[in-house]
Protein: LPXTG-motif cell wall-anchored protein
Organism: Blastococcus colisei
Amino acid sequence: MFPGTGSTAWDAVLELGIILAMIVAIILMIKNYRDR
């Protein structure tokens, strides 16, 4: 997906962090949309 840091563990952590951040952003967007 993007150039790695050379460490497999760090690459996995970064990818998990990005996925979690996207999920949280989507959840917040849905909550804000429902509150209208």
The mean pLDDT is 86. The radius of gyration is 14 Å.
